Here is the input.
Amino acid sequence: MPELVPSPPEVAAVGPPPGAPDHDPAFSPQIDDPILEIDRLSLWYGEKKALKEISLKIPPKKITAFIGPSGCGKSTLLRCVNRLNDLVDGVRTEGDIRFEGESIYDPNLDINRLRKRIGMVFQKSNPFPKSIYENVAYGARIQGIKKKADLDEIVERSLHRAALWDEVKDRLDESALGMSGGQQQRLCIARAIAVEPEVILLDEPCSALDPIATARIEELMQDLKDQYTQVIVTHNMQQASRVSDYTAFLYLGELIEYGDTGRLFINPTKKQTEDYITGRFG
Amino acid sequence: MLGDSFTALCGGALALNLLLVFGILALLAWNGGRYFWQRDLVELTMKDGRKILGEVWEEEKRPTEGPRAGVDRLRLKTGNRDLAGLDFAWIDRKDIARIATPPKALLVERLEYGNFYGSIREIHAGGQVAASGPDASWRAFSPLHEAKLAERKTVEKLEKGDIGDINAAIEALRLDQKRLDLATLAPAEKARRAEALGRELAEREVEYQKLADRLSAMRAALDRDTVVLEAADGATKEIPLSGIVGAIRPNAMSGVAKSVLYLQRIWSFVSDDPRESNTEGGIFPSIFGTVMMVFLMSFAVVPLGVLAALYLREYAKQGPLVRMVRIAVNNLAGVPSIVFGVFGLGFFVYLIGGSIDRIFYPESLPTPTFGTGGILWAALTLALLTVPVVIVAAEEGLAAVPRIVREGSLALGATKFETLWRVVLPAAAPGILTGMILAMARAAGEVAPLMIVGMVKLAPALPVDGHAPFAHFERKFMHLGFHIYDVGFQSPNIEATTPLVFATALLLIIVVTIMNLAAIGLRNHLRKKYAGSAV
Here is the structure.
């Protein structure tokens, strides 16, 4: 457990180096051994600047939440971490993201290996049009695992880990598209876990789910904390306060405030944060 | 108000379309199906005392001007082409004194000259009269005829089996000799090999001669026993028993017996080889050729179209160039099919086929092997013709796979290729199969381009047989579409073959429908497998 000392408001723990253009330093927690370090990241969709010099550190084996109103750039930021934004036409980035100290924009980096180490769960559940078994085994097959016994073990372990095994163990060969929405989303988590990533990115994973299914996903996230670093994007502030250890508030492409979840929700230092979490806008 | 009448207009248009489609199907089914039903034989006694036996095919008012205009007349199938020169006769009703349906009237279906209508007078077997008189001969006919049919089967088996094998072997040896002539070898070695080949060839020819002698002996035995048939006007004709396909007394047959006969005739129509320049017998080679050609075409067109669609949709940078390619592809579908035929002839047959012949079959030249029209070139020509359909359908199928599913795969560390291969293509498979179904339907009905790239009126052999390499893609083939044209418009006996046109057209539709249903079944299976899939 990293030592967590909320910084006094007047001192920015993470901020631009001296001489950087005028940057509004967010109030950020002291994180000494970040697994991910976003460093002055800016992103343009064509002419539109969607992310503005965002810097923040994400601690290992914690849950970090990105909150903010629609269009604030939280999903875009998340998709930068596994470089999924590269696929979108007209995207340009500046700045850097370091994963375990190494830049993910390094031209020598194997992007597919990066994505194996940083898994992702999407806003809308997106199981492949295959059987439940094949969905979970997909990543393993991509990595070249062919032996049935190995695959069986990976599938069973991942489904257990995603708390789905008991529900689906008798119908592994059925299409994944026949499952309920909540089950599909947990299947997507199982599928992500199956490739044994270090980080799991969750992009509004519960936005299409009912409260019970949402509760199960949140419970699952807590269970997975011992092994994985999780970053969740949510527009649901209750969810952020329930599940996350750290929360970053983004607004119009800027990081307004970043801090320990308990502190940020009870005692926000920024006016905009306070307005947002008290429901005055958003 | 206006909306209501528009709805009615749309509904009316649909109803009209359906009416036309079902109308054409009903017309084909009625006219084609009626042909196989055995009608009663009628014996007409004319006012001048002549007797005519035959089947009434139709009745109409005489259309010509003149004294007899408007008189009812019958079109009678009288058969006996060898005696009368024609199969059909028009009879004015007012010339008929009496119409009877004699129960003993006999119909003999023959291998040559079509049907014979009349009665049996005598049967000659083993050099003597085995039976005499219509009743005794009729009783004696069946057992003798069945024995002859069995004998004929053995003869055919010998012809196609052993003799066919030896012929193939001799042909192969001849080609070996020619190949040896062309080869560059030391003279001594060449002479040694030539001698070995010559020896083997001589052996084979001795074998062939033995079989050929046996065959001609069997043929002679086959033709030895004869039947003497007598027509209604008293003329007689002696024909070998082995030349008879079957004989019946239709007027004495029960409804059940006629129904059985009906089914048998339909079966032999779809399973037999044609006779008498396609005007009689079955159309099996045409069905086989059509189906095989369409399958070959599918094997060529699906990979070609899908790969092109993958490039266009997934890899190419979308821009004016790709848009132009798309427009060009769509326009390709509108090019007249005969143009594809000419292209196929120039490119596939002459250029590629000619090159293959020069490189791989120099020993057969100047007789072309692949350098002439054949089922492979026909299939490839049609594949070019139908590839736009597959490209368009495959592109739509690919476009319908949601981006989020692709991202799901990429986010697991799959490469773009792995994503396409393992997720996108399977999800797009139903759409691709839709394209294949459309292509098959188009190809099965296409005739014009095939006429110059390998389709023939009568193919001596099927493209698949028992001689290695079993599938002979260079062979010419028969096709149902061309068969309709040939039988209906190029036949020497149009009156007799008109019903065959209907039956063949119906069969073509049925074959296309069956192939489409098979493909649709496959598509539904895939859809079910990927239940709720994108396409």
In short: Chain A touches chain B at residues 82, 84, 87, 112-116, 119-120, 122, 124, 126-130, 138-139, 141-143, 175, 177-178, 188, 191-192, 195 (CB under 8 Å). Residues 36-123+197-277 of chain A form a domain with the Rossmann fold fold (CATH 3.40.50.300).
